[in-house]
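Reviewers of the previous submission asked for a worked example of the structure-prediction workflow described in the proposal, so we include one complete record here. The input consisted solely of the amino acid sequence. No template or homolog information was supplied to the procedure at any stage.
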Amino acid sequence: MAFRFAIESDKITADGVEVTGYPELAQKYCVSSVPKTVVGETVEFVGAGPESMLLKHVQQAAAPDGSLIV
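From that input alone, the workflow returned the following structure tokens.
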């Protein structure tokens, strides 16, 4: 889903990482289960969810003061 967001907006990038190949990243982001999503280094969540949830987290990372980004 993050990749779809990145395709739709040039303001969003997405990367997928196989944590067994990058244990230092797994440790840095405290990955204990997958999928784990990190948005802008400030918002993290574990598990799959609906598109609306990812959008909410992207907006939260973009506007941590609570202002709405559309």
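Residues 36 and 59 are 17 Å apart (CA to CA). We consider this example representative of the routine output the project will generate in years two and three.
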